[in-house]
């Protein structure tokens, strides 16, 4: 069977299971579960993948963060392997305001269709990736080596327009706590050590560094989470919590964060205070979109009536744990329109993620991904 025939067969397979996939998506939409609590989602998806011949494992490795991660495999011992990345966690109060119920069925449908139409040298894995909205499950999956040995990893994200290309920002949130010495603000014998002064100085220092030394793309957002208990007492403990982002991991880890940490230590020393620093979330790496996969997504989306906007390689407006996958295996994540100009993490987006149009687009997304996977696989066979 030639490539074109296999592509048509893959789309026919997805058409044949579209009602079941939509039903699963609506179940997830109507029963939202927060990150690391996605028990019903995992049970439902696992059961369905097993019905289509996949061997399923839930709770990957001994890493506690991956207790609701899962994988469904066919042909792991084959020469080549393709990974399809699914998500299923929801947002507090909003539910599926990021459309993960659609991401799940797009990757499920594509994995099932690819497994039945790819050459027999190809194995298939559907990865169920938990807690994208919180800890970033794919960060831990990548750290555990779960994506090593795959020839490609595919995922489509629903959005307010069709897009391919671009990147994401690296991010490694940081918390800095200064410890001083408390005393009465009007004491004649002890001026204390004001931890809040240290925190304010660091905040101001970061503002200056953003203008003077940070590389292009650097973003630092900061809030004071501890700043004293009474105005007539010198503050002995003050905490800054920061989201720290850079265009690349190198910019972030080699320039931006070292500069912030050096400034914090210098400020603490100058006041006679002490300082503690720790990262309260893991490192999300920047996205390295594979050019061949991006080109194929552009091609196939256009063929199926969803012509995408092509983003410059350095355009980024957020961070994603898919970036960590892209450091391990050729990866692409285009965006598929489910409602013009919709913004994720809004009630309107959550509504669209459960709408008939949103579900129809997810079925189209599954076809796009399956066809891209088949063409990519064929290019590696040549």
From TrEMBL:
Every copy of the Peptidase M20 dimerisation domain together lies at 175-256
Q: Which GO terms describe its biological process?
A: folic acid catabolic process
What's an example GO cellular component term for this entry?
cytoplasm
Q: Please give the Pfam families that the UniProt record associates with this protein.
A: M20_dimer, Peptidase_M20
Q: Which GO terms fall under molecular function for this chain's record?
A: dipeptidase activity; para-aminobenzoyl-glutamate hydrolase activity
Query: Sorted alphabetically, which InterPro entries does this protein's record hold?
Result: Amidohydrolase (IPR017439), Bact_exopeptidase_dim_dom (IPR036264), Peptidase_M20 (IPR002933), Peptidase_M20/M20A_hydrolases (IPR052030), Peptidase_M20_dimer (IPR011650), Xaa-Arg_dipeptidase (IPR017144)
Family note? Belongs to the peptidase M20A family.
Q: What is this protein called?
A: Peptidase M20 domain-containing protein 2
Q: Which organism is it from?
A: Veillonella atypica
